[in-house]
Amino acid sequence: MACPRSSLLCSVRTDDRPDPEQMRVLARLDPEAKLAVAQRLREEALALKEAWLRQQHPDEGDEAIHRRLRAWQLHGRAWLD
After folding, report:
1. Of 1, 28, 32, 33, which residue is most buried, by most CB within 10 angstroms?
2. How far is 38 from 5, CA to CA, in rounded Å?
3. Which domain holds residue 39?
4. CB 50 within 8 A of CB 65
5. What is the rounded average pLDDT of the residues 53-78?
6. What is the separation of C-alpha 33 from the centre of its chain, rounded to a whole number of angstroms?
7. Calpha distance 69→63 (Å, rounded)
8. Cβ neighbours of residue 68 under 8 Å, at least 6 residues apart?
9. Is residue 15 part of a domain?
């Protein structure tokens, strides 16, 4: 069944699996290095979300965008009610 282009669920793939080589590399890392990788991934994800929010709300300033980003982190939504 084809998904409508606007459907967010279509972008989620259920058959994605970690690359075995990536898993071997991660398994060899010490806890501090694993934490550093996780922090870097989180920072990159937040930067992507911030860029998307700026695209969706081009007239809003930094403070409003950061409030939306924080709301998304805390509540899973970026609305400012």
Report:
1. 33
2. 31
3. 33-81
4. yes
5. 92
6. 20
7. 10
8. 53, 57, 60, 78, 79, 80
9. no
